[in-house]
Amino acid sequence: MRYTDTMTTMWKHLISVGFTPEGTAGLMGNLYAESGCNPMLVERLCLKRLREAGQVYDDASYTAGVDSGAISRSAFLSPLGKHYGYGLAQWTTSARKAALYDLCKQRRVSISDLRTQLDYLCMELRESFQKVNRVLRVTRSIKEASDIVLLRFEAPADAQAQRGKRLSYSQETYNHYYYKEGTHIMISNCGHDEHGRYSGGQSGDQTGKEWAEIPWYNRPWTHVIRFKEPRQRQYIAALAREAAGNDRIGYDQNQRTTFWQELKVSGYHPAQIRKPCESDCSAGVAAICKAVGYLIGDEKMQQISPDMYTGNEVAVLRRAGAEILTEAKYLRSDKYLYAGDILLCERHHTAICITDGEKVQTPYYTVGWHEDEKGWWYADTTKTYYADRWALIKGRWYLFGSDGYMLTGIQERDGRLYYLTETGPCKGACCRTDESGAIMVWDV
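== Phage tail lysozyme domain-containing protein ==
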C-alpha cells in the first residue's frame, strides 16, 4: 500500500466522527481496494467506454468536466446510459451519485472534494446503512469491520473472493495509522450537541459526534479516577463504548438525566436504548458507573447519584470505591491508563478511557474453562471472558451471569425459562426435551 496525505486526513476524520480504530481500518481498507483512496478516481471501464465513443478523459479532465458542467448531471449519473463508479467509494448507482453530486453543487465545491465525500460517506452510513454504521462504531475486530463494509456497503459481485485482499488492506491500514509512534488510546467523549453548544439541540446524536470515540488528548486533566477491580473497569469501558456507538444518545445539559432513565429501561446496556435521550459528560459517567453496579452486583456503585457533576465527581466516585490518581504520569500521558479509567478536568469535563495505554499490565487468561471458589467461568480470549450472555462452546449452549460465572438450574432470560444441567460432566449445558418430553442435553 502507498500511504498519502489524503489517507491521513481520512483516518483522522473517520476517527473523529466516532468510528473505532478497527472500524476505521476496515472501512479504509475497502475504500483503498475500490479507489486507492483517491476521491477523483473514475472507474477504468468508464474511461475505456467513453474513449471508444470518442470522448477521451483521464481522472482530472473528467472531474473538471463535471465541475464545469461540460459533463451534465445526467451524463455523470449514467455515462453512455450505463452505471460506473466514481470517487472514494466508487459510488455507482444513479441515486447514490445524484446525492453526492447535489451535495457538492450545494456546497459549491468540486465533485472530488475530499471533505464533502467523507461527509457524504458518513451520512450514507448513518442514514442508509445503519447496521454497518453501528458495527464500525463499536467493533474491536478488523475482520468484522472489513467484512461488513465489503458485504453490506460496497457489495461487489465477487465479494467473497475479495474478502482476503480487503482484510489485508484493512490490517495494513490499522498497523500504519494506529500503531505508529505517537498514537493515543481512545476515549468515550460526550462533549457538545449538534450545534456545538451545551443545550437546546434535538434529542439523540444528530451528527455522530455528540457522544463519540475520539483519541485521548491532554486537556490538561486534574484527576484520573480508577475503580480497583479489573471487572469494574472492563464493564465501564464496554458500556462507554456502547454509549458512543448509539446515535440515540446525544448531548444536552438541560436533559442530562434522560440517558439514565432510558438506561434503566434498557437493562443497563446503552446499546439497547431505543428512545432518543440526552446526557452530558458527568451525567454520562455517573449513569455508566451506576449501571455497572447493577450489572455486577456492586452496592456502592449502585448508590452513585445520576446528578453527579464535575465539581463533586471525585467525592462521589471515591465513596463508590474508586481511587484517585493525581501523579503527572497519569494526567499528562495516556501510557499508564487502563480501559475503564475516568479522566476528569475538575469543574469542566470528564470522559472514559476505552482502550489500554501501552505501559499498563493487562490480565492474561488461558483460553478455556476455569474453576475457582465461586464457580466455573470461560476465557474466550487471553484478555476477556464471557459475562452476561449465552455462549456456544464445543456444540453446547452455556449461560454466564453478569459476574462472569456459569449459571445452572432453572434460569430466566429475556422472559423465557431455561434449564441448565446442575451436576455431572455436562454441568451448565442447556437442555431441551426429546419427542417423549424427556429432558436431555441440547447438542447443537
